């Protein structure tokens, strides 16, 4: 199988070109459609795509789109968000051909801010672990990772400048790392989840993919209406805590080296870097994530389990069956542990601006049967903090390695700025 060209589109560059009149929104749609025609058969990133209607919308509202926050850029939406004008299947045969009556709140935000929904991107079934058919653009024999596989792969392959995903364990940051693009999981509840198929209401978080940190920050700022852009001035040197955590030995040697190299390069560029040791409550919180997620998933997917159990993916069906015995007392205890850990994290981060840690155990695993492991993401999802995959490094085989910047809850712009600082340090002559 031939290896496709990996050439992400810069959302920020395209937006500036649209604003300057160098390209029209319809012209950007054409770039994406050409890439889809060339690469989609091999990558398989889309559950549905509508180029004709998208181009017609781009041509019908040139002036409005050009002046809008998203400048008429095409956007891909993970197929667990409802869309009124496209099928929404949640990655499951149970909902094949399903047409929701309304758009999810975040889809409406895309449209209101001048984004053009070009297609629905592939998700694993109900955003769990039964893998879809999407392939990694860097090597189609490897997984793109996570349930937001289609969104990450579409951006990496240059088929979209912006895509939306979700993270319950690690399905924004990890596929971003595997596919070599920027991935941003905002602080919990910054982006609405109304109209998105729920797996765990305490954890499910919408996130974004784009080529680089400035691109994903631009898209997030446009969607959220918040001051999140980091492209207008040089980023300040952050105080970075190198957090190896109790599962550090689970990271591959290449990943451990990548995180430590990123720390050295950031320090050489002017950042303050120090090792941090997480209190023991974080090990308890790491385990608490599963109790919270699984107790809620049994209830969120009660209809599908009770009425269509034989049509669930084997991993999901077995997981829901096993999780049905989690008692409410264990769930409540896990929530109390999470609360204590969040307080401990707030105390810890009075001394640093961000934490630096692996985005994944290593590069994307070979084979499409597994989406990889979320062990380096679950804790931070539970904490509700902003998390950003910083691309720019590769292992000896040429597969991407991502490092994760974890910020303070509600301090998303500072986390994005620190991620940009690390990204630039990796791209500096010292990091080349």
UniProtKB/TrEMBL annotation:
Q: Where is this region: Disordered?
A: 132-152
Gene3D superfamilies, sorted: Amidase signature (AS) domain
Q: Which InterPro entries match?
A: Amidase, Amidase_dom, AS_sf
Taxonomy of the source species? Bacteria, Pseudomonadati, Pseudomonadota, Alphaproteobacteria, Hyphomicrobiales
Pfam hit, one: Amidase
Q: What is this protein identified as?
A: Amidase
Source organism's superkingdom? Bacteria
Its family remark reads:
Belongs to the amidase family.
Xref: PANTHER family: GLUTAMYL-TRNA(GLN) AMIDOTRANSFERASE SUBUNIT A, TRANSAMIDASE
UniProt domain Amidase: residue ranges: 28-414
Specify residue ranges for compositional bias: Basic and acidic residues: 132-142
